[in-house]
UniProtKB/TrEMBL annotation:
Gene source species: Panacibacter microcysteis
UniProt EC number: 1.5.1.3
Protein name: Dihydrofolate reductase
Pfam families the UniProt entry points to: DHFR_1
Record GO terms (molecular function): dihydrofolate reductase activity; NADP binding
Family under the similarity heading: Belongs to the dihydrofolate reductase family.
GO cellular component, one term: cytosol
Reaction catalyzed: (6S)-5,6,7,8-tetrahydrofolate + NADP(+) = 7,8-dihydrofolate + NADPH + H(+)
Coiled coil region boundaries: none
Top EC category: oxidoreductase
GO annotation, biological process: dihydrofolate metabolic process; folic acid metabolic process; one-carbon metabolic process; tetrahydrofolate biosynthetic process
UniProt domain DHFR: residue ranges: 2-164
Amino acid sequence: MILTHVVAAAANNAIGKDNQLLWHLPNDLKFFKNITWAMPVAMGRKSFESLGNKPLNGRFNIIITRNKAFTAKDSVVVHNFDDAIFIAQQNDYKELMILGGGEIYKQSINIVDKIYITRVHATFEDADAFYPVIDESKFRLVSNQDFFADEKHAYDYSFQLWEKQ
């Protein structure tokens, strides 16, 4: 099973505040949709709630929570990360896309094989959720596409792919 993080993070690794993204980048949303479409996606309960308690269309949604009473329509609920991997494998998937949030990323950073990161070239000091620092002795940058701010994108950003060495 290939484990892949999909994340958008600022220069200071900020990923959110009050369970919401800190920016709106339409091209990042398209990129996210393209790489996660028809894939199993695992996310924490808070990330799921930030989506309005609705699963992502066109994807096999797995919600990770410690809350044994939690249920989610049209999604599989598990209570630990290993169970999320098991469920994806049982459904014949070869790759699991991990969508966060901060705690889920932190728990899985040492076991992922790939990281798709939209690096937002700005710093957000008031963030309350962060992506772990990518250890460049364990991962190598294999792809980087730079984009500049424009009328639809308030910040410069890059699409990056990191792979475990």
